[in-house]
Known about the structure:
The complex is a heterodimer.
Chain A: H1 14-17, H2 20-28, H3 30-47, E1 56-60, H4 66-73, E2 77-82, H5 85-93, E3 99-102, E4 116-122, H6 138-152, E5 153-163, H7 168-180, E6 184-190, E7 199-205, E8 228-231, H8 250-262
Parallel strand pairs in A: 1-2, 1-4, 2-3, 4-5
Antiparallel strand pairs in A: 5-7, 6-7, 6-8
Chain B: H1 3-8, E1 23-31, H2 38-44, H3 50-59, H4 78-90, E2 91-99, E3 106-110, E4 113-114
Antiparallel strand pairs in B: 1-2, 2-3, 3-4
Protein name (chain B): Multifunctional methyltransferase subunit TRM112-like protein
Pfam family, one (chain B): Trm112p
InterPro entries (chain B): Trm112, Trm112-like
Amino acid sequence: MSSSCRRPxxxxxxxxxxxxxxxKKYSQNSRMIEIQTQMSERAVELLSLPEDQPCxxxxxxxxxxxxxxxxxxxGHYWVGVDISTAMLDxxxxxxxxxxxxxxxxxxxxxFRPGMFDGCISISALQWLCNAxxxxxxxxxxxxxxxxxxxxxxxxxxxxxxxxxxxxxxQLELITSQAMKAGFTGGMVVDYPNSSKAKKFxxxxxxxxxxxxxxxxxxxxxDRGVSNxxxxxxxxxxxxxxKGKSVKKSKDWILEKKERRRRQxxxxxxxxKYTGRHRKPRF
Amino acid sequence: MKLLTHNMLTSHVKGVTKGYPxxxxxxxxxxxxxxxxxxxxxxxxxxxxxxxxxQAAEWLEQSQDLPSALIPNYENDEEFLxxxxxxxxxxxxxxxxxQCPESGREFPISKGxxxxxxxxxx
Lengths: 282, 122
């Protein structure tokens, strides 16, 4: 959570900033609880999980479990990862249902491939953009996080991150590393015209090109003004009626390679030669 | 740490190829009670690495007549689902450590939370 005058990431690394005092604030400040719960609700909405089905979700930067509690209430089971022992202690004290892990998301997620039906992260990702140690390289850490997240997610799963981006460079850094790791998706901005209510949600799709949800707006949005920035790693044209790529086309080849990567198999890298049209006598 | 999570965890240290499954050395285990949700359990069973689950149950001495191989048509066997529910979600490791089968590196578990933080060189 960033205060109105200063950004927490500039003050100290997360495991230091979220000490016992700050962690206590989280469990007692009703306004914080309300905001975090609202954002968790919106993030789960953006996940577009199948209805009435309990899912297995990952909560990155779960902290004191405010977002996790919402997941439990929605009937899901979850695993939370956080770097601050003080925050996790509060979560244990509040007896959250999810399983907690002490870990640094920049070091990568320690899971087998294809385990989770979805991932949410509330107000955590921006912490990766700052180098807290001399050995840290933010782009590398972001990439390590996104690539391990990509493999940890099941096929067609989504990851929704509520973030407070400092500037457009930071946003660019985050989205470029996510794309590099294989994700597609984009930013959904709620209430873009209100500086107080404005919220950024980064929605990433693992493997399937989904339709980006619309951002909330207090003004009716039939002006046709887009409040989203969409990016896709592939252009798939001429899909057949089922929405799948035409067999053997370049898109089909890329999707198949993606699928196999997610299964954990060794696949050659995608280059400009992948799926290139070859002469008939080849 | 519940056994459902343990079944998903591997060692993410650089250079380790066979970091799964992590060997559990538990000094304190607790069994809670959790509401039984057959839909969730049936959905999770195909994702599980069954042999790793049986092995983990043995380490914690909670095997309790779980079959060593998955029975077909488990979705309708409520008794079986209840047993799986118990071993996945109700048995918790509170204190102990997880050991990587390849490198021997240990991840301590304290108050039910495994510490997966890596060192500088990993």
